């Protein structure tokens, strides 16, 4: 069963360029979603913590401590919803659907469309607007469910658990500052061991793997949006457009601007 089949919209607020949260920690009686439109923030939900920006949904279960702190002025959608599992006793919300924590979405074009409509409806409270918001919430959850079910790469046979963990961690945190030394330490490996073993398992070093994730997102944003190079850089884990351009040219053989010009239809 998919999330969109039983998610029940409760409330929605849109915050534009919020400098800081009023509370760095809170508990909510409903499921809570932060859908970032611009900016970045760090979060901690139970044992899951990280940094999120555009392309990410961060979801917290009811009655669970939600720690958060803005990294840069944050524009985001703040949604509450319920999960109606009546008649579906075998379903345990947030486990099979992997709803808790950060979900990074690949289909940024569809995500942008949903967030744009949510922003247009932000101040509306009538029955029609509530129905539209219900649909858009469900579409976000449908997108997350589809990508989790069909876009997750299968684990090659024989990959040690600690390297699978490294792969999953880097996939989830590729678009935020990422310390390979800290990752290696968490796996009880030295950076050299992590690099050597990861390359033997996946054919890329950890740094090369993260770079490919970042450049793949950059390519999608160049193709699908009119965002500036600096904006795209910030959404792909780079400090600025100059650094993104240097990496992009080295790996793709052309500048981001030329890529955009030749790949837009």
UniProtKB/TrEMBL annotation:
Keywords: DNA-binding, Transcription, Transcription regulation. Residues 164-262 form the HTH araC/xylS-type domain. It comes from the Bacteria. The keyword DNA-binding applies. Gene3D superfamilies: Homeodomain-like (1.10.10.60). SUPFAM superfamilies: Homeodomain-like (SSF46689), Regulatory protein AraC (SSF51215). This is Helix-turn-helix domain-containing protein. It comes from Paenibacillus glycinis.
């Amino acid at each position: 069963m998919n999330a969109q089949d039983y998610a029940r919209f409760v409330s929605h607020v849109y915050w534009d360029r919020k400098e800081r949260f009023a509370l760095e920690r809170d508990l909510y009686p409903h499921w809570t979603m932060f859908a970032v439109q611009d900016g970045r923030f760090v979060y901690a939900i139970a044992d899951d913590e990280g940094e999120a920006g555009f392309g990410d949904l961060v979801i917290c279960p009811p009655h669970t401590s939600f720690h958060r702190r803005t990294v840069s002025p944050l524009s985001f959608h703040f949604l509450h919803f319920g999960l109606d599992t009546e008649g579906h006793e075998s379903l345990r919300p947030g486990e099979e659907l992997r709803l808790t924590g950060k979900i990074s979405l690949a289909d940024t074009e569809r995500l942008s469309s949903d967030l744009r409509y949510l922003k247009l409806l932000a101040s509306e409270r009538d029955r029609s607007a509530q129905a539209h918001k219900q649909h858009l919430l469900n579409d976000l959850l449908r997108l997350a469910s589809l990508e989790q079910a069909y876009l997750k790469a299968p684990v090659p046979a024989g990959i040690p658990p600690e390297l699978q963990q490294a792969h999953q961690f880097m996939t989830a945190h590729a678009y935020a500052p990422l310390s390979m030394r800290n990752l290696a330490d968490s796996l009880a490996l030295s950076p050299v061991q992590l690099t050597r073993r990861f390359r033997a398992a996946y054919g890329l070093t950890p740094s090369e793997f993260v770079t490919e994730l970042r450049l793949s997102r950059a390519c999608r944003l160049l193709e699908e949006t009119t965002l500036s190079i600096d904006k795209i850089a910030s959404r792909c884990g780079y400090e600025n457009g100059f650094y993104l351009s240097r990496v992009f040219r080295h790996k793709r053989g052309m500048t981001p601007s030329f890529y955009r010009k030749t790949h837009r239809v």
